[in-house]
Each structure stands twice: as C-alpha cells, then as structure tokens.
Amino acid sequence: MNKNVMSAALAAAVVSAAGNVSAGQYLSGDFHNHTTCSDGSTSVKTLTRKSLEYLDWFIHVGHSGRGARDCRVSDFLYLNRDSEYNRGLWVNSLPAGAADIKGDVRYDTMRNGAQVESMWRWQSLQEFNLGDIVEERNMPGNEDKSAFLGVEWVVPGHEHSSNSISAGQYGESPNSDALAQFEYCFARNSDDTSQGGGQGWTCELSEQGNNTIKSLFAGRPEEGTADYNSTLVGGINIDDGGEHVKSTAAVLWMQENFPGAAFAVQSHVERQGAFIAQDDEGYNVEHMRDWNTVAPDVAFGFESQPGHQAVYDRGSYNAGRPTAGLFTYGGTGCYGAAEAARPGLHFDGTPLTQADFAAGSEYEVIPDNMDPAKVTLCRPGVRTMWDAMLSEGRRFWFFASSDWHSRGSFGPLDFESTNDFWPGEYQQNFVWIEDAEAEDRAQAIVDGLRTGNSFTVQGQLISGDLEFKACTRQQCATMGETLAVRRGQMVHVLLEVTDPAGKNNSKYSFANPSLLQIGMNVPLNEPELAQVDLIMGAVGTELNPTDPEYYNPLAPASTRIVKTWDDLGGSGHGWGHRWAHRKAEKDNRIKLLYSFRATEDAYVRARGSNIPAATPNERDMYGNPLADNLSDNILCEDAACPPHVNGVLTADVEAWADIWFHTNPIFIELK
Predict the structure, then answer these.
(1) pTM value surpassing 0.90
(2) How buried is residue 248: exposed, middle or buried, by Cβ count under 10 Å (0-12/13-18/19+)?
(3) CB–CB of 194/262 below 8 Å?
(4) Rounded to an integer, what distance in angstroms lies between the CA atom of residue 427 and that of residue 430?
(5) CA-CA distance, 254 to 256, in Å (whole number)?
(6) Distance (Å, rounded) from C-alpha 418 to C-alpha 654?
(7) Helices 44-54 and 130-137: angle between axes, nearest 10 degrees
(8) Could you tell me whether strands 482-485 and 666-670 are parallel, antiparallel, or unpaired per DSSP bridges?
(9) Quick check: helix, strand or coil at residue 450?
(10) pLDDT digits 0-9 by tens, 545-586
(11) Domains of the chain: which residue ranges?
(12) Residue ranges of the alpha helices (H) in 7-147?
C-alpha cells in the first residue's frame, strides 16, 4: 500500500464513522491589522475592501488609547515626517459639530506647532469605525463575506492582544457599544475617567468573579493587587503599570458580561521577551495559563505566528528587544515553533549573566547591557510552550495574522514589501464556520474561532479544504474536538490536504534560494509541499499556581514527532514524483494515515512545509525550523532577485521562500 493512501476498507470505515456531514465550511480570515485609526496607512474602508478581496471574513483592529488621526483618511505616505499628506487629523476633517471630544480633552503638539484635539479610542470605535465596515460589507459582491470591528488591546502589564466582542455588530442597528466599553475600562494607555463621556460606564467584576481573581493571585504580589475591585475609583482603575491582575480581570469581565460573544487572543506573544513587572511588555507561560483558567471561553488562544513577515527581521522579532527566542522560527515565534527555557535561565536551570552576551559568546547577538531576566532562550524542537499548555488538556489554539500597517519602503499597490502583506495575501486563518449565512455573522465567526477547528497557512502552501481527523471504526473527531476511546483501541489519524498546482500570490518566479542549496529548482511562486509531521503529546492534569511547573514553558518529554511524511509527490521541479499522473488527472490531493493503539490521554497536531529536513540554514535533521536570522547566510543571486534584499534571503523574498501550515490539535481521551 502506498504510505500516503490508506486502504479502501479503512477509508470506508472512517467515512462511515464520521456520521452526518455538517453544512459548515472552512472560511479564511484575519483579526489583527491596522488603519489610520492608529498607526496604519490605510483607512478603515480601504483596508476592509482590500482584505475582502483575499478573505472570507475580516475583523479590523487598531491600538488602544487615543489618537489625532482621522480613521477615514488613507494616508500612504504618513510615515514620511515631511510628507504633505501628514494631515489626517480629527479636528481638520470631521464635519461641523462632530469634533466634540468626549471625556478629558487632550492635546498633541504637531510638527508645525499647532495643537489639535485627540480622540479616545473608545469613541472612534463607538461612533466612527463600524459604519465604514458596514458600508463595505454591504457592497455588491460581498454578500458572502463577513466583516466587523475589534481592537488591538494595549494590555495592562503586557503588550498587545487582538480582541473583539461580537454583540451588536450585526442586525438592524449595528453598534460596537460593548467593545467600546471594554476599551474604556481596560486600555493600559488611557487615563480617561469620564465613564464613557457620561454614559455611566463602570468596570467592576461580580463578587464571584472578583473572588476568582483574588484566589488566583493569592500570594503572588508581583503580579499586582489581587483584589481587583478594590482598586477601582469612580468605577475604573487607571493605574496600570505591571498590572497583570487587571489584564486577567479584563478577560473575566468579557466572559461575565458578554458570554460566548468575546475573544482575547494575545498578539505576537514573543516579541517583547520575558515579562518583568512595570515593564508592560512580555508574556510568560503563567500569564497565558492565568487568562485561560479564569476565562476559557474568551482567552482560548494566542497569535504565535506574527504578521510583519516581510520585515528584514522576520516578524519584527530580533535579539535587541530581546524577543523570546531572539528570532522567529519558520515565521512563527518560539512559543509555537521551538522550545523555550524559563526566563533568565539556561535550559539547565543555571542563571543567565551579562557575560553570556559578550563578544565571542554563544549569545553575542543580545546587547551586552541587557538585563538577563528579560531574556528567554529558545532552541529548535517540538516541546513548545503551546504543547506545554496542550499537555494539561487546555483547549488553547494557534492563530496567525497579517498585522498590516504598510508595505514599508514600497507603496501599498506594489507587490514588493519590506514590512507587511495585505490581510490574506500571505497568511490566512481557516476557521470552520457552521453557518456562514447566519443572521449574526460576527457571532458565527467568534463561535468558530472558539472551537479550535481551524488551521493556518502561509503562502498558499495548501488549499483551504484540509481534513484532519482521528477516528475509531465508530466515530471521528476533528481539530478542537475530543475522541473518546477505550484503552488499547486502535485510533486512525487521517490528514488530507490539497497541494495546489500553479502559482500562489507571490510575483517572484525565480528559483527558491533555500531549495537551491540542496539542488532543488522550484520557482518561488510555485511552492510544493515537501514534508508533513504529526506531533503527539500525552495529556495530564491542569496545573495551578501552587505547582512550580505552572511557570515552566517546556512541554513534557512525551511531546514528540510520531510520524514524518517526506515523499509527497511534486511538480517535477525538484522531486519528480508522480508528476505525469497528477498533471493528467489533476490529482493534487494527498492522503496521509497514521494509526496507533490508545494507551493514555493524548493530543495530535500536524504541520507541513515546503522545505525538507536538514536543509542548511532552514531545518534541523528532524525538520524543525531553525532561527530565521540564519537565512542571511543564503544567497539570492538570481538576476531577478530584487535589489532591496541586497543579495541574501531576507525581507519578502524570505517570507515566500519558507512557508508552513499548522493545524490545531485533536484530543484523545480514554473512557
């Protein structure tokens, strides 16, 4: 039997076990991006319109706080401080009578010396942003598309999180009042005490919820005041420095007040390195566990695959911050794609010192004046922080985003980029939506995100028709679900993907420099699936803060690659397998099977890439991604290689050269 195709008898059994087929479907989307509401280069309408060209659903977010720029103005040149286009000011462009700034009036001094009013972000969310999104989603041709509003929350004690509350955003009178109140209550970079410009907004938890927070943080004074409600003055706490307690109270507030309608997915979680109280930057594993413990229906995942994939330091991750893991690994952060040590420590548990960062040392890329407590070391492997949480049985999902701001040194309509790709142009979250025509489309999207029945794809490596399930002969479960089995029962894991023929969204057609290193001549815009790994881990009990392992980001040693497939067929560019058959019959579907006997509670997840194991500067011998700064050792010597990469594999060319898909897990539970 071909190892990529299961037997006809087993196939029939698996199909029959699946039972009734849902009318749902995987739909692609993005929930982290920016407009001129904060520091992006395009208006809400422009970004919504462009994103829906690539995607099925779109959630616009922008930073918390306040701003003096008009969200309705596309200002492609605003990053140039001398640009005549740097004029997107609320006071200049709102209609007469509409420039009343609610709450405390603030002033910014512009470069020309003028003072202009700034608007609180909650006001722009409530009064100006959603209308533009509604107008675009109602345009002819968008009948099957969904779009609504979120916010990239500037998080007390940490950095950022992509959030939304679906309540009110569809229907006869769409509104974003719920989201605006959340922003008023919990934005770290806001000291507004106006109760929403007189709307009476306050920010208490219920007594039961506050007791939950007090219990979680008892004996952990470094995280903030455990009695959250006691910190409120006039219904709000505006003293946010180092307040991880407040961030945890915030996600619980969402779950208490808008159950089932809200989500908070921590953004680019590795970017600012380890958490240090009062720094308001990093996330450690205990912070993800805290959120997920108190609000599992809201804090159900993280964005470990950041946007900014075309930045010279991929993902805008670098050793100078220092990013946890220092760099991305195959475009994904260390927490989702490599193994992390505890902050400030070597993997053997000995403390880091500044001598470890000196010239000639192993970590000389880190500034030698860096506080060692801020540094989280990472290494290639599959015992990731994500797997550490899955090994507790936590339903905690992996997501990606564009983090669109601009194309860097290029214009928004150029195909080159040194910063970002349009939402959906490069990265996509494919999420199973049960009813794409639901009356409340926003609620349907949030429901889909929560289930974990989703996967991410870079560079159109595979199509959106992936099928991943674990089955007995009686039943099946897919991503985010649990398959209940008897001890010793056979479990069959099936992964089906389509490796699409033809070109992806890249405009670069020269040979992939990464693959040229191993003698493979594959056009950059015609990627081929080279390797797929099935990763499995044992599931134990959920940890709590009294357990030292609660603070350990390294997954148990039981986490391992249990199956690798690396003979998947190809186009003839490099592999030469089955090309005549596939081309003639348009057979681009790949079926992969792994069977095992259930002996313990476990989970399985899958990943795949266009670059095989042991490729220099890209993969270790097992196929794990290496740190992306190593791509600078790969030459880009083709005559068509663009000047902005300076002859090496970096920026947008690196992004298109090294692409992945990642699935969310399926859980196996012994009866």
Answers:
(1) yes
(2) buried
(3) no
(4) 10
(5) 6
(6) 11
(7) 40
(8) parallel
(9) helix
(10) 999 999 999 999 999 999 999 978 655 444 433 332 232 234
(11) 1-23+280-341+376-400+426-671, 31-267
(12) 8-17, 44-54, 90-93, 121-124, 130-137
